[in-house]
Amino acid sequence: MTQLPSHHVQSFIAGRPLAEALNAGPLVGDWLRRPLSVPSAGVGPAPLFAGDWPARYLTQARDAGLDDGSLIRLESALERLTAGEATVVVTGQQPAVLGGPLYTLYKIATCVALAERLAAEGRPAVPVFWAGDDDDDLLEAVSPVWWDALGDRLQGGGTKLKKAGRPATRVPVGDVPLSRLPSGEAALDTWGTDLGRDLETLMQRARSEDWSLARLNRAAVGRIFKDTDLIQISGHDPDLHEAGQSFYQRVGPRLTDLADLARRAGRQLEDKGRHAQISDRSLAHPLFRIENGARTPLAGFADDEAVRDLRPGVMLRSLLQDWLLQPSAVVVGPGEAGYLAQLDHLYTTLEIPRAPLVPRLFGWLRPPEVSDAVLQAFTHPKGPAPDLARTLGADLVQGTEDLVRSALVTHLGLPEDRARQLAQGRSRRWGKGVQAMLETEIAALREAAVPHHPAWVFPHGQRQERKLAAFWAAAMGGDAFIKDLIVAGSQHLDLGAAGHWREFTAQVTRSGEGDTLHD
Fold first, then answer.
1. Which end of the chain is more exposed for a tag (fewer CB within 10 A), N or C?
2. Contact call for residues 326 and 351 (beta carbons, < 8 A)
3. Is the distance from CB of 468 to CB of 102 less than 8 angstroms?
4. How far apart are CA 441 and CA 458, in angstroms?
5. Residue 156: in which H helix or E strand, if any?
6. Strands 7-9, 13-17: parallel, antiparallel or unpaired by DSSP?
7. Cα-flanking dihedrals φ and ψ of residue 409, to 5°?
8. Domain coordinates of the chain in residue numbers?
9. Adjacency order of strands within the sheet including 287-291
10. CA distance 4 to 190
11. How far is residue 203's CA from residue 216's CA, in Å, rounded to a whole number?
């Protein structure tokens, strides 16, 4: 094993206003102008903690070999939640190679900091991480990259799984065995940190025993945040969905009406010059059942059906989460804030209380040569913004769909309904390739417009936290970095309480480099 020079991640400091740093559009800009406000929690345990789910969860944690200290904290947290003496602060992300994007750590750190903040105010709260391991976005699962320090190049960022005898689509990402994934061999122990060595040992064991992606991520997140009260929940847990029986009985007969509500809300957002985040295709598949290891879309759901194998689509996932947990707050990023705005009427219709959406921590890890001017050049480069790929792609798909439908009706004489169905399917498949092309070209233009930098600072021309692998960054910075993240999360919330949300930066120095902080 080659030992790399030790790297020190200095404490995060607040920088630019967050709306400016993100070059935020109207919807996200309005959201970031609101000061942090978390109302007092209700009385009594949330539905998930009112039944026997906590006891099952604790048994699973013991069987998984959780250390004694973690078990004691977990048991105490569950007791408070079961007694209705504490509320929940929740965030979530689907599992991915090497923990997914770096912002996963930022989400969890913000969640932990907010729970601590509420507890200090006399409002006990427990941080919860909802792992979206029931999702089937396999492309996202293999997208993170990491920096190979010896070769001075980025690694990872695959586009497909290794071949196997299982279905290629609609497989829950949490079930995917590591043998089907890109290797993710980032040599986490070469950074010389205890956290890096522990994560590498965990990775080696997971590979040798061919763990599922969900099992590895759960164990690694538990190690990274070992000194907190964080509870990890699996969206793929049958017991979780059994606890949601009443929720499914409520929404089952109303799926079509709820989808129409969300669809109309999306059109209203577009009329205001904003973007409908939830596509018609997603709204057409609000509910799935696990069959033969894959998610099968359901056209409906009867009141007396078993729910252990049900899984929500995009439209229902947050509604189920908030119904089960009754959180005091939900920590999210801008994309989530955008799509949740489309669900406002669904919350009202189903009489599910809407917890405040709290912006997660946003941050940069940067070497001394990357100044604020460089970050500014990245935020406002000479070239198209990343979101253009989605908006332009959607316009092209719609235009193509209209042309194909018209041709089928005019030249082949097909009925309007049949022509529309064929045109939608073909243009959607074509549109995926077009959007991927647009994303690639836009990323290249943006990267070319940014001054020279180490490859890991702006990986593939994107915001670092959206592409750089979480476990790689955790291994490099070590346990001190994780503690600093939680402190930064607390400072982030302090600023947000006054409506001054900011972007944070932390300088990364190597052995022998100066400790001067470049602000």
1. N
2. no
3. yes
4. 15
5. strand 153-156
6. unpaired
7. -75, -45
8. 7-245+316-377+473-510, 383-449
9. 294-297, 287-291, 310-312
10. 6
11. 7
